[in-house]
Amino acid sequence: MHAAKRIEIIANSAELGKILDGLEKASVSGYLVIRNVAGKGLSGDAPSAFEATMLDNAYVIAFCAPESAKPALEAVRPILNKFGGSCFISDAMEVGSMRCVASL
Description:
Largest sheet: 4 strands, antiparallel
Mean pLDDT: 84
Helix content: 25-40%
Number of helices: 2
């Protein structure tokens, strides 16, 4: 097992391309995107899947080497600050079968 960082981003789908570009530039090339995420946060209810609009939220989860977390945060922070959204970074352990961090 190897130490890794888990990056979770919830943001407006309209900004998804910019967020993914930021992750790529920070050498976080593997991620999962879940579109049309519904829920409730500090800004109130997010639209449900039955109320699809351009304001739908997307959920991005990525795992990276610990040293890539700060550059990734620096890349997405300006986007989230300008357009809204949340980002969480936490510790994770990579299991050998994933090899997203172990190959670095």
